[in-house]
Amino acid sequence: MPAHNLARVTCSQRPRCPGRSSSRPGRGRSTDVLLTTAPAWWLDPTVWGIGVAGLFAIVVLLFAVLLLSRRRYSMDAREVVRAMEELRSGEIPDPGGSDPGSPLALVFDAMQRLGQDVGARVRSFEEADERTRRMMDVLDDIAVITTDIDGDIRSFSPGAVALFGWDEAELLGQSASLLFDEDEYKRFLPKLARRELREQGIESKVRLQRRDHRTFPADLTVRQLTDKRKNAVGFVIRIRDISGRVDLERRLDAAERRYEAVLSGLSAGIAIVRGGRVIYANRCLAELLGTHPEALDDRPLRAHVATRDLLAVEEALTDVEARGGTTTLDCRLADDQGIPIADVRLDAVGIEHEEGRAVLVVFHDRTEQSRIEEELRRNERRLDSVIEAASDGILLLIESPAGARVHMVNGSFGRLFDLSTEVLLGAAEKELLDALQQAGPAGVDVANLIAAAGHNSRKETFTRSGKQRFDLEVTLVPLIGRDRRPQGRVLVCRDLTTQRETERKLQMHAEQLQLSKVMLEQAYRSLEDANRDLQGRSDQLREVNEELRKLDEMKSNLLGNVSHELQTPLVSIRGYTEMILRERLGPVTDEQTKGLELCLKNIDRLISMIDNLLVLASNESETTRLKLSHFDLRALITEAAELLREKIVGREIRFSSQIEGNDLRVHADRDKILQVLINLLSNAIKFNVQNGRVRVTARPGKPGFAEIHVEDTGRGIPEEFHEKVFERNYQVAQTGRGSEGSGIGLSIVKEILESHGCRISVKSVLNEGSRFRFTLPLSPQQPGARTAASPAPPAEDPIQVAESSLEASARQEFEIEVEAESNDKPQPRFRIIRPEPPKR
Hints:
There is one protein chain. It is built from 22 helices and 26 strands. The two termini are 81 Å apart. 23% of the residues are buried.
């Protein structure tokens, strides 16, 4: 086995594991010896350097001597060779055979000094090797291995042989990776390239492998070996088997988890307090305080005690911590704001914990118990109030070893027999019977019943006539306990005198009602005769109504047919007039242009009147039904604006629309609501000023409805005509202007909205403009929409016009602007402008 040379002994004190108590067995302070060895002396580069240098000098001198005289110095050359052989074998050269006068005498002197130095160095290394061997024999639980720069094992201690189970011959020269678990070596290998290995070494916890392939945990320390020039020549590895320590730590961790699981699983809150501060709290206490256990560490316990109990709790815990013993008191716990949240019973016990005295505090949650007790007290007070307010006389007798006594009596019992409840309460049964015997005939009957019944149930009715007439119903029932044994008796006395008198009066009233019934039957027969006469007249009116309905239907059909027949040629006339006006059939003069524009305007007016007549005829038909659907108001408003595009462009109206809410959907007949919007927008355009403005606003209104406003900046409507504009064939007189409408557009709007269960109203200021407001039922999917399938009935009160101030971020607007081509004949175009929705 190769020799082991002690180069350096370093004692390192391993720190205590964080979070572990120093009082635990096996986890105290431990001293590990770090051994760093150097190679044997004949492997030392210094020795080899000295030897090679001396040998080179001798060879040079020898060649010089041989050149001077081969014969004269042949004997001295043989002596030099002999001395070199002795020096190579590790012995000190003996210059006894050399000639003192020979030129080689100086060589022999230098070799002798070199031999002495080498001998001293060899003896020093041998002594160090012996000390190292002895120390390694003592430290049999530590393995020390040295490797070369490639990681091949060059020396090892006896502890390495015992730890890994390899023979000395098998281990020497093997790669150090043989001692590692395969995966562990791959993880550890990059650490050898770190800079810290050169500066201070590497310490790590790894898994190593014995010869039988069993792995074990170990503390591994690696230091780099360098020569005098600070060049790396190898590594020294210190290994310590920590299987026992790891197993002990695992058992301690398991014990800690079991201990914490037991404490956490307790239904009571547990805390360890030292100096008024919490050093441990279990999960139950944290849940009781509405926090987590870590938040309670090192916090003053007083921060979680209600103010009224703070002084008592602090005094009790201080006394227990100082003197030991136990104490118990009731208190209330509070949250961080000092608000009481739980009633607890506090049990405190003085204990020794780690490095000093402490207090183990157990908190038993009595919140539910206190609530139940308070509820029982409230129920008792409520029951006492009910019993006291009862009109029946109630008395409770409770059995005791000394005999039955009155435990409870209400005021009705005392008033019934003219007795004081203060006298009766707590009286013995005999005293009660004596008092009842003196309370008159009713009391005598009740006393006899109590005495005769014993513990049996009895129910009797006592009746007396004369001046002291009374009817008294007495019920006596036993009070049975949980053990099914009689605990007492309950006596209930009900005065039936008033009830019996009332029953007699009711009998008289019943007889009178019977007589009234006979008279009502006679009157009913007379009404039946009158009803038959009215039924005959109703049939006649129904026939007349049917005839009127047929006539009205004929009128509507005639009106529709005539309107339709008038509309067809008017559309054709309008088309040709527009072509002439646009000079597609030839040039026209300015006078002709004015006449054609007037014709086109009146043709549009006639077509609008005919359209209204057609809508009116359709609405008056009984066969017409609402085709309800769910649709988006924004799309409908855009469609109405597109249909009126030419009118908007012709009057140079600036049209805008504002929809509040991302998706405002309604439940209505889409075609009819489109007709409503077209009529209102047509009026807003028609009666507006040149370059005026028309604005449509839609938003959620009252629950279940959407609210739509149509505003213009036209000439307005006088206030006295606000209600009349919705009447059929009514037109507001305009000064200096002819009639521009048929007077049925707004009446159609009103009829369509009323068929949906909605209303319309107008608010207008003369020469400033008008605002029409109407509502539509929201779709059921909309927030606040009604769940009924049919539209809601119209409200009886007039609809008030109001503007709601909603946030600008909830609004989305779009405007329709008019653009013109750059050619001679401007062609209007529409461009919808949608601003970006506000970022939230």
